[in-house]
Design brief:
Blueprint (H helix, E strand, L loop, with lengths): L3 E9 L2 H17 L4 H18 L4 E8 L2 E7 L10 H9 L2 E5 L2 E7 L9 H9 L6 H98 L8 H31 L8 E4 H12 L8 E7 L5 E4 L1 H17 L4 E10 L4 E8 L6 H4 L12 H4 L7 H11 L3 E7 L3 E9 L7 E7 L3 H10 L4 E7 L2 H10 L4 E4 L8 H10 L8 E5 L10 E4 L5 H12 L4
Parallel strand pairs: 7-9, 13-14, 13-15, 15-16, 16-17
Antiparallel strand pairs: 1-2, 2-3, 3-5, 4-5, 6-8, 9-10, 10-12, 11-12
């Protein structure tokens, strides 16, 4: 027990002494610096405990510790007071109640660093308190009750006022939220309308390009043919000036035809109508052909064009026309912006990623970092004095990247101003014809479906997509795939339900399945199961081969 100084003691021989103890307890609490509410709590707690023990040789001692007001009541009741009603109520009014054999200690914490008078003065003031009658004490308790009731009424009024303010604020916020919701609904409706208009405009643009393609190319080819007739050996002789002007017409027409072809090819790529037709291609032959055909296009002397193809990457199953177009664009840009040094084409195999890596590196002017990403935007050209003399449309790199994505690969640039630029084309390394005719990817994640399509390029002829299990069932009913990739977490019909439906359908039960999910531990047993996290092309292809071979 903490060291305490006794202030006063009082015997509890009769009920009248309980009133005295209550009065002394409240006075001691006041002198100790407690708030009026705490004074009433101490007095009431002493009254309840005193009522339990008076008349049994009980003695109460009020003492003051450094940070507590302590009241110790000794009594002769050896049966204990642990379950008494008075002690339970006292425990709710003070900070601590301790019960020992024949003793009850009540403690109330004091405010720290409160200046109090000398202990002798406190004792004198408590001693001078005259005994009180039950009627006087009852009158004091009534006054305390009335004061407490006033406090309760005041607090209730403040609470009611607060509730009124909260209700008004709630009504205001509700009105503002409702107005905001109406604005959001109107915005969504406007966005839907704009989206519909954009879709219609895009469809109209695609129809325009599809219709105008023949009409644009045909007259230009006719002009080029007529120029050839005029300047050819079978035409009438032209004066030197006439021959020069006809040559200018021919050059301008060929330039215009190349520009129209770029625009039409770009429109075709944007509309998603790029359909690769892979064949077995010798990359050595492609590199040598480009070396011969691109060498005359060098506009500056002192630039060496070289190439190297690693033997392990010499054969690739790819759309040759798309690949040549990509490499021609990259080499053309490299030669155009290189005044001296070297432009080099390298082909190697990346066994870790099961890819062929083709790089076109130059020692040209380079691209500033702030423009490096923007060069893949349509019609964007890096500003600068060197760019003014280099003719172009700004469509070569965007079109090359779209072709690379259509082939299941990627195209990236790395450049240092004044030192040169390196373009890196990565394509799936598949040296033979596709092993699978049709693969269905059933997943609500559009990003994963696109990634799966790229990884399966060259391995599968057709890759179909379904955004949920219901769409997958419809796709399988229309064209049964050789294998289906299934995500377990999908809307409408999820992966588990889709597997059950397939098992119940004789036409679909025999289709091999690979489960690709973020939670492979919950996938059905007996299936090839892959995690989406860090999935590589070689892992996916091996899982498909195992599933088709009947392996778990």
């Amino acid at each position: 027990m903490k060291a305490a100084t006794e202030l006063i003691s009082v015997r509890l021989d009769a009920d009248q002494d309980v009133f005295v103890l209550r009065r002394l307890g409240r006075a001691a609490a006041e002198l100790a610096g407690l708030e009026p509410q705490d004074q009433v709590r101490v007095a009431t707690a002493l009254s309840e405990v005193g009522r339990e023990v008076y008349g049994r040789g009980a003695l109460a001692m009020i003492a003051l510790a450094e940070d507590e007001l302590l009241i110790t009541v000794t009594h002769g009741d050896r049966s204990g007071l642990a379950g008494s009603e008075g002690v339970r109520l006292a425990g709710r009014l003070v900070d601590r109640v301790e019960l020992d054999d024949g003793r009850v200690t009540l403690a109330k914490r004091l405010r720290p660093q409160l200046r109090r008078g000398p202990i002798s003065d406190l004792r004198d003031r408590l001693t001078r308190l005259s005994p009180v009658s039950a009627l006087e004490e009852l009158r004091d308790q009534n006054r305390e009750l009335a004061a407490t009731l006033d406090d309760v009424l005041r607090l209730n009024a403040e609470l009611q006022e607060t509730n009124t303010g909260v209700l008004a604020m709630y009504n205001q916020l509700s009105a503002e939220l409702e107005e905001t919701n109406r604005g959001v609904v109107a915005l969504y409706a406007e966005l839907d309308e704009k989206s519909s208009q954009l879709r219609e405009a895009n469809e109209a643009r695609n129809r325009f390009w599809a219709t105008i393609s023949h009409e644009l190319r045909t007259p230009l080819n006719s002009v080029i043919g007529l120029v050839g007739l005029l300047t050819g050996p079978g035409g009438d002789p032209l004066t030197e000036e006439q021959a020069h002007q006809v040559e200018l017409i021919g050059n301008s027409t060929r330039t215009l035809l190349a520009l129209v072809s770029e625009l039409l090819d770009m429109a075709k790529a944007e509309s998603g109508r790029l359909d690769p037709h892979p064949t077995t291609v010798s990359l050595t032959d492609v590199a040598e052909h480009l070396h011969v055909t691109m060498r005359p296009t060098r506009v500056r002397g002192g630039v060496e064009l070289s190439h190297h193809v690693a033997p392990e990457a010499a054969v690739l199953h790819v759309d040759e026309g798309m690949l040549v177009t990509i490499l021609r664009n990259l080499l053309s840009n490299a030669l155009k912006f290189t005044e001296s040094g070297e432009v080099r084409l390298d082909v190697r195999a990346d066994d870790d990623g099961d890819e062929v890596v083709i790089t076109v590196a130059d020692t040209g002017i380079g691209i500033p970092p702030e423009h490096l990403r923007r060069v893949f935007e349509d019609f964007y050209q890096v500003p600068g004095s060197f760019q003014v003399g280099a003719r172009g449309t700004g469509l070569g790199l965007p079109y090359a990247r779209r072709l690379a994505e259509a082939l299941g690969g990627t195209l990236e640039l790395d450049s240092t101003p004044g030192e040169g630029t390196t373009a890196t084309l990565r394509l799936p390394h598949h040296g033979g014809p596709p092993e699978v005719e049709r693969v269905l990817v059933a997943d609500d994640d559009e990003v994963f479906r696109a990634a799966a399509r790229r990884m399966l390029h060259g391995f599968a002829v057709h890759v179909d997509e379904a955004a949920d299990g219901a769409a997958a069932l419809e796709a399988m009913a229309a064209e049964p795939p050789d294998v289906v990739l299934i995500d377990l977490l999908m809307p409408r019909v999820d992966g588990h339900a889709l597997l059950l439906r397939m098992a119940e359908d004789d036409r679909l039960s025999g289709i091999p399945v690979v489960v690709v999910t973020v939670q492979p531990q919950h996938a059905p047993g007996g299936r090839a199961v892959l995690s989406k996290q860090g999935l590589r092309r070689d892992q996916l292809i091996q899982a498909i081969r195992r599933a088709r071979g009947g392996e778990a």
